[in-house]
Amino acid sequence: MTGRVCDTHVHVFDAERFPYATPRRFTPGYAGVDLLRQHLCRIGAGRVVLVQPSVYGQDHRCLLDALASLGSAGRGVAVLGPQTDGTQVAALDAAGVRGARINLVVDGASDAGRAREAIARVSAQAPPHWHIQLHVDLPVIGALEALLLASPRRFVLDHLGLPDGPSALGSAGWRALCRLAGTGKVAVKLSAAYLCAAGDGAALQPLVASLARANPHAIVWGSNWPHTQGTARAAGADAGDTEPFREVDDRVWLAQCSEWLAAPGLPASVLDDNAEALYGF
How far apart are CA 112 and CA 280, in angstroms? Predict the structure, then answer.
């Protein structure tokens, strides 16, 4: 792994060594550090951010093992539960964790009230230099705008705030997201394009362009490797059945985003520069 290209959103799964939590919403297959390295080689990335997946709950052993293997090339984003104590947080920080994730989408409960409660709790638990990563949708982002602006924390929004394709451009939630990015307090991940639009993500160009106009330095790139089914999961599927990953060529999305952010006066390395600053590489 070489170079400054950074994939800011991947997950690792190794149920044989690190059993999944029960109950859980789904059961992914194997996607260990060996396969992660192959993914990073394919896209030409030398840096990576591991995000704690919901199937591990607050058990960070798999994430910590992967970070130890990756060394200085890896950073992490943890999930802090109500019982997570200061000793555990300190160990996560020492291992390279630089943020705490709040995921309300996985349980189908992406509402502003729950988000406010979770932000208050996690803000009290996390070290001051950590950001808070929010996996919520655009209506919730709009409802949280004042809270995020008033907080001393920096925030990161997953998957472009989950817009429903380019039609989200004129929505109140997207306008709030761009205003937040414009302040520099909130960064936005260009990740999991297939969750935001059908096809290879080309339809998202107007959204990425509007975000870049708001603040090109508030944008980072991510793949969401190894691409769990998410919203494509079959209704009524047994959570205990191992599901296949999506087949996604992440090189396409990376090339598209890099092309869309090419502008006079803006360095070609802007996505890498932004990730370096956000995660402390």
Answer: 30
What pLDDT score was predicted for residue 207? Answer: 97
Residue-wise pLDDT tens digits, 105-125:
887 667 899 999 999 999 999
In terms of residue numbers, what domain contains 270?
A: 6-279
Q: Which residues, in sequence order, are CB contacts of 166 under 8 Å at separation 6+?
A: 197, 203, 204, 205, 206, 207
Mapping DSSP to helix (H, G, I), strand (E, B) and coil, where does residue 142 land? helix
Tell whether 82 is covered by a domain.
yes
The stretch 135-160 carries a mean pLDDT of 97
CATH code, 260: 3.20.20.140
Query: DSSP of 57-121, one letter per residue?
Result: TT--HHHHHHHHHHGGGEEEEE---TT--HHHHHHHHHHTEEEEEEE-TTTT---HHHHHHHHHH
CA 206 to chain CA centroid, nearest Å: 21
Q: In the chain, what is the straight-line distance between the N-terminal and C-terminal CA atoms, in Å? A: 14
